[in-house]
Amino acid sequence: PMVKYRMPYDKHVEEHPHMASFVASVNGNDFLTDPTGSRRFLPFEVLSIDINRARAVSMDAVYAEAKSLLQSGYRYWFNDEEIAELYRESEAFQVQTAEMELLLRCFELPTTDSDCSYLTTTEILTY
Question: Domain limits at 81?
Fold first, then answer.
């Protein structure tokens, strides 16, 4: 599918083809710091690896299968329901930033618009 983003120094967000995926590993379970961007990650915990079985996997066969699925029109992106499930499942990997803790401790969610005060980030920092 297409993804929307603003290129460096561009003025407008534009659609671009999704060109790459990223795979990484981390130590520990608290690495997602941006709750709005967590759908970009598919976190899961690996309890053990059978290294001999992993080495026996033919990466050429994996690539061929992925290419075949792509060419057959296989949907490889998440729909809205799957994104909601991903958010729920990734909560265990969320880290509470100091900024988020400060906001949660010092501010309340208003019950009506009349209770609202719209503040910039700078105004919040100096509140």
Answer: 2-97
pTM exceeds 0.70 for this model: no
- How would DSSP label each residue in 92-108? GGB---HHHHHHHHH--
Distance separating alpha carbons of residues 20 and 114, to the nearest angstrom: 45
The structural domain count of the chain equals 1
Q: In degrees rounded to 5, what are phi and psi of residue 61?
A: -70, -40
Query: Dihedral through CA 43, CA 45, CA 48, CA 51, nearest 10?
Result: 10
Query: Phi/psi of residue 103, each to 5°?
Result: -60, -45
Amino acid at 30: D
Q: How confident is the model at residue 54 (pLDDT cuts 50, 70, 90)?
A: very high
Q: Measure the CA–CA gap between 14 and 4, rounded to whole angstroms.
A: 5
Q: Is residue 84 part of a domain?
A: yes
39 part of a folded domain: yes
How many other CB atoms sit within 10 Å of the CB of residue 33?
Answer: 13
Q: Are 18 and 5 in contact (CB under 8 A)?
A: no
Residue 126 lies in a domain: no
